[in-house]
Amino acid sequence: MTKKSFRKIWFISLLSTSIPILAGALRAEVEDLVEEEKQALPEVPASMIEALGHEEFKKRHAGQRDLLVWGKKDLKGSITSLYRVYREAEDPEVRLRSREVLKALVILKQPLPGQGYLGIQMDTARWKDEEGMLHPAVLITDVRKGTAADLATLRADDLITGVDQVLFDDLAPTRRLADYIKSKNPGDKIILKVRRGKEHLELTASLRRRPTALDEINQWGVLPVLPQETEMDEDYFQEWLKKQKKKERKAPKE
Fold first, then answer.
1. Are residues 140 and 158 in contact, defined by beta-carbon separation less than 8 angstroms?
2. Residue 111: inside a domain, yes or no?
3. Does residue 104 form part of some domain?
4. Rounded CA gap, 95 and 104, in Å?
């Protein structure tokens, strides 16, 4: 055997023994990283999962509410953990309610470019203080379901007398409010000063994204029919679920 042939055989032998070792070490390192990632994720409290499938409606409802509060503390981690619960749940009630909480968390975390949106129809109005003085206000004539205004428990016939540090003047309170809201970003929180009958309230609203259709007035000067906020949320969530399933298909099998 020549020296050249011997070196070739030796090199091939070395490769045949070293490659499996390197591959095994790399595989072990990847598995360790995956395990560390799993351990870093928050664990969904077992008591809350059990509550979602409780035979009493009040218990199920309370469990869903508590799970949402828990999830808001760490949106990124809780979404990943709760997605696993949703995918692996065998109880239809647990699967349904975990899905609703998961959707709410995903919507909260979604990127929201654009202008702020409250979700009311309004008109100018006045209100009288204890001394009989009249002040400008914004009269709510309608509240769109599922919007920031609806979630903040605003109602038709409420009077908005101010927002954050902004006080309305006599010229155009509706324009002042509209411009202020549009100057904010989706996800920003505002505090609305509200008169409801004889009550003085301060309600916090977390603004949503302003629908582009609001700026598209047709030839008759009428606003187009806007999709329900809940429909837009569901569409976004469905797209999110598709992306998660696509990631699962690409992920290596354990």
1. yes
2. no
3. no
4. 14
Contact indicator for 41, 77 with CB cutoff of 8 Å: yes
Q: What is the pLDDT of residue 248?
A: 83
What is the residue-wise DSSP string for 123-137?
EEEEEE-TTS-EEEE
Please report, for the domain that includes residue 178, its CATH number: 2.30.42.10
Tokens (6 digits) for 148? 């920031």
Alpha carbon distance 151, 249 (integer Å): 37
Q: Is 246 helix (H, G, I), strand (E, B) or coil?
A: helix
Q: 182 in a domain, yes or no? A: yes
Contact 191, 202 (CB under 8 A): yes
3-class SS of residue 139:
strand
> Quick check: 249 and 241 in contact, CB under 8 A?
no
Kindly report which listed range (29-43, 155-169, 173-187, 195-209) carries the lowest average pLDDT score. 29-43
Rounded Cα–Cα distance for residues 40 and 254 (Å):
19
Judge whether residue 246 has pLDDT over 80.
Answer: yes
DSSP 31-68: HHHHHHHHHHSPPPPHHHHHHHT-SSHHHHHHHHHHHH
Give the amino acid at 134. Answer: L
Q: How many domains would you assign to the chain? A: 1
193 three-state secondary structure? strand
Give the range of the structural domain holding residue 148, as residue numbers without chain letter.
Answer: 116-210
Q: Is the pLDDT of residue 238 over 80?
A: yes
Above 50 in pLDDT, residue 3? yes
Is residue 194 in some structural domain? Answer: yes
What tens digit of pLDDT does each residue of 141-150 get? 999 887 889 8
